[in-house]
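Hypothesis: this fold can be encoded by more than one sequence.
Test: take the structure tokens below, design a sequence, compare later.
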């Protein structure tokens, strides 16, 4: 298969606005988010400092609020299944930051439901891979206080993921021999989740007329590259490539979804919380994240672009099987992967088994 020579249609202006808004949010700058009725100013709480606090107090005159995800609110002591907002009559930086991520913080005010625009602000934080927390105020008169802010429509934020999925395309490919899998080809895709490239490694010559051996592997900088003992990701990556090479070939999707989709910075924050006694899921909830932020629809589209319709999945995670089936692929079988156990990853493996239903038998993991 050759790289497509056709260029995608120029993105709609709304999609461009969201891409720019993600860049603004990651840079720590506020954006305007609007629907047909009103507009708000949203700032990532990670960027909040005394100067921003003073500007929000001037803009809202006591009406600023802090939008938090449901997992973070539960960590603060609220029995909630939905995101919510806490009033900030005066924007106190230390109070806001404690409510966002301090493990010992507890609710100190009532929680109100989020308006649709507030939910859109949290989605922008997710797309930017920041903590799911936003400082929000009504946007009337905002340009006088925050000049040159980007303005993005809520409808465009909500449709962004589907628009990106439709733009998925191959941009480059080349043979790259790997240790234990010398007949490998790297195929780089653009589009899909966020604004990041994704990679398919076609190992050997898999027969796409039969179920193809497939591994969905989310990038793990610490484990894949540096051999971290806190997880089994590097073992799974290398085993999958060798296993495919020895068993008729396959496709290994290397997906830029670090830390179960939370991003590298948040993964390292979670590691610090784990060092103080939390397990991997408790740490993520303390930071405001659910069990798994990853989405796999774009992974299914990558496989389809490579001609793969039926898969035998290499995974311990039943959710991946369900996700590919929901995206229109035929997941006919699954094989487990065994990583090495050590004193540093036993609690991690047990948490994945006991809390997320991963099919892990720790006593069978190699030592």
């Amino acid at each position: 298969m050759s790289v497509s020579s056709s260029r995608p249609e120029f993105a709609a202006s709304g999609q461009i606005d969201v891409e720019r808004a993600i860049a603004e949010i990651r840079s720590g700058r506020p954006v305007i988010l609007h629907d047909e009725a009103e507009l708000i100013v949203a700032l990532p709480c990670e960027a909040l400092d005394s100067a921003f606090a003073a500007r929000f107090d001037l803009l809202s005159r006591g009406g600023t609020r802090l939008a938090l995800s449901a997992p973070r609110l539960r960590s603060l002591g609220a029995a909630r299944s939905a995101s919510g907002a806490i009033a900030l009559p005066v924007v106190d930086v230390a109070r806001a930051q404690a409510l966002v991520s301090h493990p010992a913080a507890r609710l100190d005010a009532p929680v109100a439901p989020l308006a649709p625009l507030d939910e859109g602000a949290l989605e922008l934080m997710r797309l930017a891979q920041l903590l799911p927390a936003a400082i929000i105020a009504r946007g009337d008169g905002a340009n006088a206080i925050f000049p040159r802010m980007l303005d993005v429509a809520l409808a465009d934020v909500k449709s962004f993921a589907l628009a990106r999925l439709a733009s998925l395309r191959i941009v480059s490919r080349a043979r790259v021999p790997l240790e234990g899998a010398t007949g490998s080809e790297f195929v780089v895709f653009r589009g899909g989740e966020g604004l990041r490239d994704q990679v398919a490694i076609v190992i050997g010559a898999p027969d796409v007329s039969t179920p193809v051996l497939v591994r969905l592997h989310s990038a793990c900088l610490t484990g894949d590259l540096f051999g971290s003992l806190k997880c089994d990701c590097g073992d799974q990556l290398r085993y999958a490539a060798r296993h495919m090479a020895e068993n008729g070939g396959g496709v290994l999707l290397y997906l830029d979804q670090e830390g179960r989709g939370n991003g590298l910075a948040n993964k390292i924050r979670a590691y610090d919380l784990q060092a103080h006694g939390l397990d991997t899921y408790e740490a993520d909830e303390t930071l405001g994240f659910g069990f798994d932020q990853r989405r796999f629809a774009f992974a299914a589209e990558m496989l389809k672009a490579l001609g793969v319709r039926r898969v035998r999945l290499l995974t311990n995670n039943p959710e991946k099987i369900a996700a590919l089936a929901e995206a229109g692929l035929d997941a006919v079988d699954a094989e487990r992967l065994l990583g090495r156990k050590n004193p540093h990853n036993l609690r991690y493996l047990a948490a994945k088994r006991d809390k997320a239903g991963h099919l892990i038998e720790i006593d069978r993991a190699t030592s």
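Residues 1-10 have pLDDT under 50 and may be disordered. The chain has two domains: 13-158, 168-257+294-364.
Hypothesis status: open.
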